[in-house]
Amino acid sequence: MSKHGKVLVAMSGGIDSTVSAMMLHEQGYEVVGITMKTWDYANSGGGGKETGCCSLDSINDARQVSVDMGFHHFIVDIREEFGDYVIDNFVEEYIAGRTPNPCVLCNTHIKWSALLKRADALDCEFIATGHYAKIGEKAGRRFITKGKDEHKDQSYVLWGLSQECLERSRFPLGGFTKPEVRKMAYDWGYDALSKKGESYEICFVPDNDYRGFLKRRVSGLEERVAGGDFVDTKGKFLGKHHGYPFYTIGQRKGLGLAFGEPMYVSEIRPDTNTVVLGPVESLLRNGMTVAQVNSMKYDQIPESAELVTQIRYNDPGVLSKMAKVHGDKVEVEFLANVKGVAPGQSAVFYEGDDVIGGGLIYGSSIR
């Protein structure tokens, strides 16, 4: 009988998830490793070598550590459930003129669901991942709170987890920094693992060319959207672009036009295949609507509360007022103008280090 119970650990083959498994094993948990095959790089049609969490090398790395530490390891094929939801949503969001964050969606709807399903089948009480975050508890509710390493904190991408998921989740790395994790791997005798690099790529777009991925994924997309108009904030024609799905809010490079000052994508209008350009000031917004909100720390997001709102990963956040809460939507007023609010991205609300909740940016406003 294990000291702390049985835990299913998601192991990508990277240093974070591997050290998480080793830590839990050393702490007395009965560890079961699982590597989830989410995507075949060959199916993306991109060039180059397969890398990242779905590569054969990564799967073998995870398996080898399991053998060394003496616990079971399984490989689970979730390509169908992953592709149907995450990739279809990724494409649909760009076609709708929004900028998706597939990693958040995958955490919320795919990875945790897949982990819990397999945990139940293997009689595991808990699941664990290598995220740099912690779990807090107050008045019977659980919530994500920031990890110790401010440079690696991943609380932003976990806003969508349900109370059931949080109750059964463990984040062993929440109280450690990345250098400390690397040292642990080295001290355990895994020198190569301790030096393993970071992966910031979307797993199904490992060449980081999302525009190429969209073209390959949607037959005839390039021909359907080519030749739209660039206009300025007053509607003046500036030139032709390659199609609105290939641009994102805040983009400055790759516009194919020369101006007397830096110009940025400030708005995308899919109905008319129009991309609005403007100076940096045109990116400023003082409010937004957040939809599909998941409240964590409280039963609902507290109306009129002043919270720090983060609109992108590693964003310092801005003090904001929760002006109106209705159902799963929140009207947010920024107490200082914010640059580059992109529909489709996540907005996460913090009270100190605690995640109050989060949702998807639906639209933005300027008074």
The CATH C-level name of the largest domain is: Alpha Beta
Strand content: 25-35%
End-to-end gap:
62 Å
Number of domains: 3
* CATH superfamily label of the largest domain: HUPs
Low-pLDDT residue spans: none
Which sequence of strands runs across the widest sheet? 12-15-14-13-16-17
The radius of gyration is 22 Å
Number of strands: 17
Secondary structure tally, helices: 9
Secondary-structure element string:
EHEHEHHEEEHEHHHHEEEEEEEEEE
CATH topology of the largest domain: Rossmann fold
Structure description:
With 367 residues, the chain is α/β, with parallel strands linked by helices. It has three domains: 6-130 and 172-194, HUPs (Rossmann fold, 3-Layer(aba) Sandwich), CATH 3.40.50.620; 225-278, SH3 type barrels (Roll); 283-365, Elongation Factor Tu (Ef-tu), domain 3. It is 26% helix and 30% strand. It contains nine helices and 17 strands. A hairpin with a 2-residue loop joins β14 (318-326) and β15. α3 (79-95) runs antiparallel to α4 (102-121). It starts with 5 loop residues before the first strand and ends with a strand.
List the defining traits of the structure above.
Rossmann fold; 3 domains; six-stranded antiparallel barrel; five-stranded parallel β-sheet; alpha/beta; single chain; SH3 type barrels; 9 helices; 367 residues; Elongation Factor Tu (Ef-tu), domain 3
